[in-house]
Amino acid sequence: MHCSPLVTLLTLVILVEPLFAYQTIAHRGIFHDVKDHNALAENSVNAMYRAEALGLPGVEFDLRLSSDNQVLVFHDMISNRATSTDNYGGRLDAVDVSLNLQPPVAPILVKSRPANSWIGTGLKAFGRNGRIVPADGAHKLETLDSMLSHFKNLNNPNFWLILDIQDPFIFSRAAAAVNAHGLSRTVFLKFFATKAINSKGIKYNGANTCYQYARKNHLSDLQIIPQINDGELHFEGEIAYLNVFNTKLSVREYLQCWADAQKAHSGNGAALMPIVSASVPANNEVAFNTARDTLAWAKSAGRKTMSILPNPDAGRIINTQCTLWTYQSGSVKAARFDESARKAKLAFVEIAKPDYVVLDLMGDLGNRRWIGDFSSYIIYLC
């Protein structure tokens, strides 16, 4: 039986972590800890501060909009799982809901309420077995503006804040906020290549399109990271392309647009593209090859490269076995962790060798260290 190179590579890396050196970016900060009493909330000021204190080069945080179009530092589309505003007295546990130990309460959309109803809302911290750790009142939901102020207070030029962006309005508002705080050197805007772009009314004209888009959306002289995701790719046989700027572009053509705009207008309104990011799904060889080609292009163009390697959000001992779970952005239920998806992403990291990997980490505050490898990480989830 013939096996494709992708299948062969997946087989080889099932139990092996990458053997090469990459720099680790803490996904949502360092908030897990081997000791429950040291657990923090994700996407929180303290999770950012802990990552910096433990020597990480940076964190990646998520952004959402309130009903009055204020940008909030938050991952989920709904508030139930991660905040005390959960329709269950602040006690809702997504794993318990999945196991029918708690009711599937009505979800609360973040975008359904104005910012002033979210500012200062308590964020949940989780310990072993996915259990909520009693709050001390220190973990609060932040606006992007307040988070940037806290980040600026670190005054560490070697520590990055990477903002993960999936919406055109958030992209523009976040860029304006970064400019207002004077953080263009240490804050990066990582954006979905098509979902975060408002293509309405644009007629594609090569590099000038990316140049004008940067000028009109406050991206001038800011550092951007295009993120190539399989969910945004369209396929024609073995060929993948993006529908963006009202044009069908190959990934290389799309990235070249930003690169050529920077080359022609650097220091005069162009966005800067120091890093390119790509990730892969399970069981899609065309998407895998496209992502690999994306990072190969980036390296040939003098850019750094980035990818994503997820770890489970929670564990729960069931019948003496540690089961692994993922929290869902739009559901009050957790889902079983997709190990096949992680294996595909690990295979990609092995072969593409990115400079940076965004990774879920386990803190060990007592020993002033962090843990990223899968086998050690999951030991402390249950």
From TrEMBL:
<feature type="signal peptide">
    <location>
        <begin position="1"/>
        <end position="21"/>
    </location>
</feature>
<keyword id="KW-0732">Signal</keyword>
<dbReference type="GO" id="GO:0006629">
    <property type="term" value="P:lipid metabolic process"/>
</dbReference>
<dbReference type="InterPro" id="IPR017946">
    <property type="entry name" value="PLC-like_Pdiesterase_TIM-brl"/>
</dbReference>
<feature type="domain" description="GP-PDE">
    <location>
        <begin position="27"/>
        <end position="150"/>
    </location>
</feature>
<protein>
    <recommendedName>
        <fullName>GP-PDE domain-containing protein</fullName>
    </recommendedName>
</protein>
<dbReference type="InterPro" id="IPR030395">
    <property type="entry name" value="GP_PDE_dom"/>
</dbReference>
<dbReference type="GO" id="GO:0008081">
    <property type="term" value="F:phosphoric diester hydrolase activity"/>
</dbReference>
<dbReference type="Pfam" id="PF03009">
    <property type="entry name" value="GDPD"/>
</dbReference>
